[in-house]
Amino acid sequence: MYCSKCGVSNADTAQFCAGCGVGFAPVVSAGPAVVYAGFWRRYIALIIDGIISTPIMLLLLLPFGLTGALTAVIGKAMDDPESIPVAISGLWLFIVAAIVLSVLGNWLYHAVMESSSFQGTFGKKVLGIAVTDLDGQRISFSRATGRHFGKFLSGLIMNIGFIMAAFTEKKQALHDILAGCLVVRR
User: Domain-by-domain residue ranges, the chain?
Assistant: First the structure.
């Protein structure tokens, strides 16, 4: 490095100029720059999570589907108008189970994984991104829960809440802003 006072060339590790003796300011490393995960990387992570979670959900719903199908077959086989409510109740059992398992399963998957030391779902992990708080630290389960259910609001307004991640300075979607979270590349 060159001295700004006398122009003498010095070693990069020198603390004082060899020519005039002026002290050099210590070089302070600011650490690695934060790189925010963009919209498309996050979207692909969501697709990967869907590929992983869909077969698991289908396996969990299988007993309810078999119950619904069985009651429908019994109702049809009996060919009795009074058996129709039994068949319909089997169908409703499947529908309710699908909704409950979907909501609970997705919530637990995202909230547990994002608040764990993984700091993200399997899809996020594959793409090298993590969910953090605004200071870059791991988020709590309650914050991950708030972020997850904030996604309903992001989707409710014609998915504009999700699309915001493509245009905000820190690549935050609406649910990230509401929960005080960042999605960063690691």
Answer: 1-31, 39-185
